[in-house]
Specification:
Elements (H helix, E strand, L loop, with lengths): L15 H7 L2 H4 L3 H17 L5 H19 L12 H13 L12 H37 L4 E6 L2 E7 H26 L1 E2 L15 H8 L3 E2 L3 H6 L2 H27 L7 E3 L17 H25 L12 H24 L1 E3 L1 H7 L7 H10 L4 H18 L8 H7 L13 H7 L8 H15 L1
Parallel strand pairs: 3-4
Antiparallel strand pairs: 1-2, 5-6
Helix pairs in contact: 3-4, 3-6, 3-8, 4-5, 6-7, 6-12, 6-18, 7-10, 10-11, 10-12, 11-12, 14-15
The structure holds arginine.
Length: 458
Amino acid sequence: MAKKLWGSRFQKKTNVLVDKFTSSISYDYRLAKYDILGSIAHATMLGKQKIIPVADANAIVKGLSIILKDVENGKFKPNFQAEDIHSNIQELLENKIGKASERLHTARSRNDQIVLDIKLYLKDEVVVLAGGISCLQKSILDFAKKNINVIVPSYTHLQVAQCVLLAHHLLAYIEFLERDKERIIDASKRIDSMPLGSCALSGTGLNIDREFVRKQLGFKSVTANSIDSVSDRDFVIEVLAGLSITAVHLSRIAEDLILWSTKEFNFIDIDFSFCTGSSIMPHKKNPDVLELIRGYTGNIIGDLSSVLVLMKGLPLSYNRDLQLDKPKLFDGIDTVKNMLEILPQIFGNIKINKDVVAKRVMDESLFSVDVVEYLIRKGLSYRQAHDIVGKMVKDCLDKGKNISSLSNSDLKKYSDKFNPDVKKILNAWASISLKISSGSTNPRLVSAQIRAWEKKLG
Ligand code: ARG
């Protein structure tokens, strides 16, 4: 194990197994950039406040800036013998500037330092995630526009229900993705509070300037309670909750596409470049990417529940258990980012089997509600209309007939309200055009929605 930030009171070297067991460098090295940025702001403040000599503060800032460049250029190699990223950077700094580096940890603890690192990391990641969601929304919107006249059967209970514009179905995705984006951006409000200066848990007797550090690091506020600052990880949970909901949505999109690409549905073809084959069955073209989106969603929900369980029994304030939030947080963020990267590509390469869906929407059972509403418009109660159409559907199914093939006198047997004009509504285009309520699949309303989203997503 490399040099420790503690140890003077220890009469013995720690057991190597302890070093190995407690180390977090294998994952928290990813926070190097944020750890350094925090230290630069902290050292600058210590110098300004004359808590440490200005010359030492300058030396620290200079040394850290060089290490930061290495991190940004990908030249930083973590020392996997270090206990954590904080010790690793401290050691690098010592090697660079010597004695002055020993003043950096004044009025600071790793307990507030790690919270700062995660918060800075999350402030960046939230922007990337929100951008990724917008990008997916745009690709879905493009796909909707490309297929604006396509009508598909829609399902409840996975049984054929009613016709909708494909674009209407796709706009549902865009709606829930927008809420996902809002949730993640909203979580960032509660991340935007600067914890440094809380130190181990009670603050410090040294005359630090937290407001100055806040400004340097671009936080909106400073945290108001030092114990809360170092104890809680609700902001990690909140992001993971937002990511879990997002992933569940992505998983449902994936499931729709999987289903639609089956031979049984055959609504769409997913491009070969986004499918895989079978080692034994030569005919197979499998949607593995989409299945993995569904599968990884379980991991992300697992990440959320891990951190919730991690927190539930912890006495205030800091406990080492808190270290274990990071592998979960990183996994959740990386996984959702990967999903958001690949899904737009898939949407950009889907082909709709227009002839197939056109045939499917000729199924007259899709129009049963339209016929019910036809009768309601003629004065029947909902109950009467439902019963009449139910009987018609049953008889037609028994006799292998369509409603549209019934003669006028046949129709009158069910209700004298029927006129030959009822046959005009027994087609998909009429069915969607008859819908007039706001938020419905009416083509005019759907087009307006598309224009609104075009404007919003830019
Ligand atoms: N690695 C720890 C974490 O992620 C920070 C170090 C705090 N260690 C300590 N002994 N107080 O939470």
